[in-house]
Amino acid sequence: MNLNLDFAAIIERWPAFLDGALLTLQLAFIATVLGTVIGVLGAIGRRSSHPVVSRICGIYVEAIRNTPLLVQIFLVYFGLASLGLKFSAFAVAAAALTINVGAYTTEIIRAGFDSIPRGQIEAAEGLALSKAQIYWHVVMWPAIEKVYPSLTSQFVLLMLASSVTSQISAEELTAVANYVQSDTYRAFETYILVAIVYIVLSLIMRAGFWLLGLVVFPRRRRLGTPL
Amino acid sequence: MGGSLNANHLMFLGYGALWTIGLSLIGLLGGGIAGFIIALCRISPNRIVRLLSAGYVQLIQGTPLLVIMFLTYFGLPTLGVTVSPLTAAGASLTIYVGAYLGEIWRGSIESVPKPQWEAAEGLGLSRAQRMMKVILPQAMRIATPPTVGFMVQIIKNTSLASVVGFVELARSGQIINNSLFEPFLIYTIIAVIYFALCYPISRISRRLEMRSGPARLSLGTA
Amino acid sequence: MHKISNVASQSPVVSLRNVHKSFGPLKVLDGVSFEVDRGEVLVLIGRSGSGKSTALRCIDRFETIDSGEIVVGSHRVSDPKLDLRALRQDVGIVFQSYNLFPHLTIEENITLAPCSVKGISKSQAKEQARQVLAQVGLEDKLHQYPEQLSGGQQQRAAIARSLAMQPKVMLFDEVTSALDPELTGEVLKVIEALAADGMTMVMVTHEMGFARGIANRVVFMHRGKVHETGPAAILTSPATPELAQFVGTGL
Questions:
Q1: Is the distance from CB of A185 to CB of A1 less than 8 angstroms?
Q2: Is the pLDDT of residue C174 over 70?
Q3: Alpha helices of A127-185 — where are they, by DSSP H?
Q4: Which of A74, B16, B80, B138 is exposed most, by the fewest CB atoms within 10 A?
Q5: Closest residue in chain A to residue C146, using alpha carbons only
Q6: Residue A80 falls within a domain, yes or no?
Q7: What value does the mean pLDDT take over residues A86-92?
């Protein structure tokens, strides 16, 4: 084993890594925001009394959760192409990641919805709140507060999984690593450095979600206890 | 274009699917052994051991499997250690799966009720005996549903071995596509095969979860 | 309790006429009829499974009935075309398990419905929240979360939340059953004060001493039927052996 490691040659390329890291965060951000929206809608859909709606949502969730992200990315990439639609690799990556994480958030948020006791909804009905008002005030917010730790973990996993979009040449962190290592022939140092950057990114995300939680859930800020 | 999908192509996909299963088993076995050690280290009475194992879990859970694959396959040769795609993929999965299974199993061991530990201690059993005879058998029951659920993650994660050129299901699809140029069709078939492998396990895991009571959320993107 | 008895001439606020209701093969309400006049307190008693809670829940349409007629004020509850939300603005209901919203402060719990249903301003709703909390003796808990309150305090806050909608009728469904005995008193006192103020109320309770003190009318339910009804005095001198046995065990 020849252990003459040269990290300097890699660290020299920091602007490229920074660009890649920012793109990774952008992908994660877009997929987190849109994935949350899909998750809420999907969870409402799965609980819908309309059999077709709940069925479609169920099929979406199972199809995504039982196939690899890599294959999903290729399907979106080539699927759009075969329809004659041209999108940037970034757009395709963001779309595929959103579709992917939406299925997981649907399941997480649905579990949150299911955990709201029947009595809460009856109390709200007794106060003459409308169905939409009940969903918004009495079901959705406490449900999301309850599953917030799971959602956080899921979104961090998503950020890490976004490395797979390097395979359709989205210029995110892993793709940057791939061309830096082929330039420098320093694969070991490159991927060690990139691994460290990913670890830092996941810490940043966790810290960000922690802060967001304090802003969005005043009860948690005041009492510090899980709902 | 390069002809149409024929029986040979399907045979080749079948061959890839077999390697997906094989690699999954390697990941489960290797990751299982690693995970078991991690789980025991995480609850060790020795503080250093606990810290080191916690550090390992944090590092691996903060790194994409894809980067671990690249590190073993492209990184090790630059240090003079050449590895085959199979070795690289198997080692990467072992490292990765070990961290996740280790955490799942640690949680299972810790959720065995405290009085059980105390009762075993009261009987004068040694730590090893307490673990083997009292705690682990109970922890195993708790751990079964999430472990089965995680097997789905392992199967899906083996698709990343394709990037180091290991010919499993996803890679065999890519190879066929290179001659047929029918990506949408081929990746749909690939997706269906993955689904056929994963869905039954998902179902079993969910049924086990329902039987064992409190629902655990299974996370995962792969 | 001192009750206003000269209001009986007006039409009843709540009336049930020959109400039938089954859960599958189980007949829960078998031709139940009773009326509640304005300012009156009607107490529903009976063994568990006698149908008293179901009868109460039917008044606020938490259960639909199979046949018969329920009228609350101007609302025909048994009419399929009922404006449910209009009914529930006029009827307040308090449950055994308080059901305060855990993620909202007491003030937010109370102002939620007035703001979103009646569309009154935030500041007006907050002022009102202060008033109803004072009514139940919890004005210092405005900014606390439910879990920071004792069970008795939570139930009083739940009553305050209903009062903020200014209901014409209040329904109480075993509101002290989940409470430790030493906490029931504070809740019962609040209900007594409401009765003294002339609130029309229907309540299901197991507190026989309390029922005797507060009820203008007692309805004893047995096997889905109104088995015996009358003034609070029937609790001390029951006419039927079933009620005699019930109060005998209940006291």
A1: no
A2: yes
A3: 131-133, 141-161, 173-184
A4: B80
A5: A219
A6: yes
A7: 92
Q: Name which CATH class applies to B17-167.
A: mainly alpha
Tell me, yes or no, whether A3 lies in a domain: no
Residue B132 pLDDT: 87
C-alpha Rg value of chain C to the nearest Å: 18
Q: Does A181 touch chain B (CB under 8 A)?
A: yes
Residues 88-147 of A with CB under 8 A from B: 100-101, 104, 107-108, 111, 147
What pTM was estimated for this model as a whole?
Answer: 0.89
Distance from CA of C236 to the nearest CA of A (A): 34
The Cα B103–Cα B95 span in angstroms is: 13
B residues 32-61 closer than 8 Å to A (CB): 58-59, 61
Assess if residue A126 is contained within a domain: yes
Tally Cβ neighbours within 10 Å of residue B141.
12
Contact A181 B64 (CB under 8 A): no
- Cα first-last separation, chain A: 53
Q: How many domains does chain A have?
A: 1
Given a cut of 50, whether residue C6 has pLDDT beyond it is no
Q: Is the confidence at residue A77, as pLDDT, over 50?
A: yes
pLDDT digits (tens, 9 = 90+) for C45-54: 999 889 999 9
Distances (CA, A) of B43 to A136, B127, B182, B191: 42, 12, 51, 39
Q: Which residue has the tokens 């003190």?
A: C213
Alpha-carbon span C40 to B34, nearest angstrom: 72
Tens-digit pLDDT profile for residues A56-65: 999 999 999 9
Residues 6+ apart with CB under 8 A from A207: none
Q: What is the pLDDT of residues C142-157, one digit of tens each?
A: 999 999 999 999 999 9
Superfamily of chain region C14-99+169-250:
P-loop containing nucleotide triphosphate hydrolases (3.40.50.300)
* Domain encompassing residue A198: 8-223
Quick check: C4 pLDDT over 60?
no
Q: How confident is the model at residue C8 (pLDDT cuts 50, 70, 90)?
A: very low
Out of A75-84, A141-150, C95-104, C191-200, least confident range:
A75-84
C abuts B (3+ Cβ pairs < 8 Å): no
Which tokens is C23 given? 């859960």
